[in-house]
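2024-03-11 09:14:02 DEBUG pipeline.ingest accepted 1 chain
2024-03-11 09:14:02 DEBUG pipeline.ingest length=406
2024-03-11 09:14:03 DEBUG pipeline.predict start
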Amino acid sequence: MLQGMVHPDFQKVADALERQLPRSGRGGGAAVCVYHRGEKVVDCWGGNRDEEGNPWQEDTLALSYSTSKGVASTLIHIMVDRGLIDYEDPVCEVWPEFAASGKHDITLRQLLCHEAGLYDIRSILDHAGRMLDWEYMAEALADATPAHPPGAAHGYHALTYGWLVGELVRRLTGKPYAEALESEIARPLGVDGLFVGLPAHQMHRRAKLILPDLMKRGGSAVDRVERYASGMKRLLRLARIRVDTVAMAQALIPRGMDEVDFNGEDFVSASIPAANGMFTARALARMYALLANDGELDGVRLLKRETVWRAAEVQNRGVGRVIPLPMHWRLGYHRVPTFGPRVPNGFGHFGFGGSGAWADPDRDLAVALTLNSGVGTPFGDLRMVRIGTAAARCADRRKLGGDEEE
């Protein structure tokens, strides 16, 4: 069922991907890429990229939702590395309008670890269609009032994160976000498949989302989120963790979300850095391979080692106000969950729909998954966890058994 390549030491990663592919002829597809010690050891794909049954191709792009946040975070870390801004600098030093409504002391660090209190998108937007208008979103966030004193709590900035970080990138580089991403990460790393704002000439490459029947039923977007949350509630209740679906909806679903077509060209061509990245697993894995290797890959250095390790430091713990699980937020990334292998210094970002990517500097390991079927949760699902678990175990066995090179 799979195409591509896999190093024999990492065959179990490909096996894990193959088990996850839908068995029906029109059930969706996926791609996985893994780097270990700077070497690409897995690059495979399979399944279908749309409901018509067209096969997933080597260069297929997939909408990756919040996996986009890890890319945005890496971009702002490059700005920090160059001395253009510091993590403890007030945001308003770069973005003066942002000081309105009591936000003059909010720092870049607080934005990156979700402590700014600007997650309630329903109080900021009158309609989800506004998300396609960068200038409107930047102005609305500059005027917004935090839901709590900055730093007093953390709450997942599910949608607002992208414009908050992205507007800083735009002002620091003098370039539109999509152009800055291309010039600062994609081009230096030589990757083709890292888009936030998909150009018209790349539309033919994209996979179309294939939603499960549960998401196609009637009712509002809030109703559908609550249906999904009900299943999550039953599991989390066993751990005595409360799920506040109202707070979740306020952060995740602006008014009019039902009218947004996530498969539409208007949506994927806009720049929504928290939610609409169109990526290949290959491009994501290469970016995270650079992070796993202290900021350098194949002779290209985008970050100093100390910048990478500072970005990976845990900033807060415990359950936040939106996500009912402790994410151990770093500076723009979260913890790496696995079934067994410990990844204490690992960091990355997963997304609604099941995609995800992460780096583990301890193993010099990077893992990425893109796909177009299923929904999962706002912060990924078990498919990425299984892929990552297989990759970490393969890396550990490789170390214990020794390489041919060793």
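2024-03-11 09:14:41 DEBUG pipeline.report The chain has 13 helices and eleven strands.
2024-03-11 09:14:41 DEBUG pipeline.predict end
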